[in-house]
Write a structure and sequence with these properties.
It is a single chain. By secondary structure, the protein is of the alpha/beta class. The chain contains twelve helices and 15 strands. The chain has two domains: about 220 residues, Rossmann fold (3-Layer(aba) Sandwich), CATH 3.40.50.2300; about 150 residues, Rossmann fold, CATH 3.40.50.2300. Helix 6 links the parallel strand 6 and strand 7. Belongs to the leucine-binding protein family.
Length: about 400
Amino acid sequence: MKKRVLTVTAAAALTLALGCGAFAQDLDTENPIKIGYVGALSGDTALWGQAGLNGMELTAKQINEEGGILGREVQIIGLDGKGAPDDSVTAYKKLVEEEGVCAVVGTNFSSCNIAIAAVADELEVPVIATAASNDQVTVDSDGNLHPYSFRLCFIDSYMGYLAGTYAYDELGLKTCAVIEDITDSYSTSVGDYMVQTFTDLGGELVASEEAQNGDNDFRAQLTKIAAAQPDVVFIPWNYENVCLIAQQARELGITSVFFGADGWDTTELIDLSNGALEGCYYVSRPGFNLPDAAAYGEVYQKEYNVALESECLYGNDGVQWIKQAIEAAGSDDPKAIRDQLEATDSFDGLLGHMSVDPETHNPSRDAAIFEVKDNEVQYVGIYDPESK
C-alpha cells in the first residue's frame, strides 16, 4: 500500500489518524524501536507522570498507524521513578540494560535528572528531560557537558529572569520576598534567579525564607514575610505546596502578589488554592494555547477522558524529536540518536519551535506568562523582554 502524503499539521494528522481508523501499514514488529519513559507514575505528582506516558503512547500509536519509524513499530516502555532521584536512576538503568531502549524521555524533576545524567553518560543512551529545568541537568557543576543528557524545557535561569523582569518592569513591583524549598534544586535555583533579576533591575529583597517539602505549616516563615510587607513574594514550589503556602499567607493578612514558575502549572491549581492565588502570576510553557497543542488536547481527552496536563505535550514532543533524530541518522543506534539530537537546529513540536545549543544541550524556545484571574488560569501570552 502506498503511503499517503498529507499536508496538515502534526496535531491535525493525529486527529485524522485516530479518528478515522488511520492507515493500515505493515510494520516490522519483530524488531520494534523501543523508547523509554521515566516519570512519577505514583505519589503526589502522578498526574504529571501519567500524562507524560499517555502523551508518548498516544503519539506512538499515531506514528505506528502512519508507518512507524523506518518501517518499524514504535514501542513505549514506561517505568515509575516516583519523583525520587534513586528510583529514577534505577528505572533509567532498567530501561537501558534490561529493556534495550534506544532513548529515554523524562523526568520532569531536576533532582532526578541531575542524578540520571552521569549514569546516562556511562551507559551512552540519551535521556531527554521534559520539565527538568535546573542548569545542571545537562552540565555538571563546573559547566562540563553531559553528552547524553538533553531537555525539552527552558532552564531555571530563564524562568527566573522572566519572572523577575515581569514583576519589576510590567507589574511595577519594587520590593520582594522569597520562600524556597531547600531540599529541591529546582526551587532554590529558580528562586535565586528570580531575586537576582529583580534586584539587578533595582528592586529590593526584604525577606528570604526557607522550608522543605513535607512541611504543612509555613506560618513561622510567612509571619516574617508579612512583617516586611513585600510587593511580591516569589514562590518557586510545586503546585500543592504553593496552594498551601498561599492560603496560610492570606490567613496571616499578606496581600502581596505571588509569583511562581512552571511548578504551578496544573489544572488542579484553582481548586487547591481556594481563591488564595487570585491576582497572581507564573511563567511556564505555552501549553495548550498554541493551535496544534489545542487540537492534540482534544484528541487526548477523547482517548483518556482526563484533565489536560502539559506533560502530555512533552511526551509527544519527546517521541517526535527522537523520531526526527532516528530518521536523520537512518538508525536507532543510541549514539547516532545522540549526535542528531545535539545537531538539532530546527524542531517543531506541540510546545512550539526549538533549536538546541550544542555546547549546553539547552533548547531555545518561547515561554509564556499566566495570571490567576476570576478564579481561572488565564493565558497572558508569550513574554520576551528582549523583543520590547
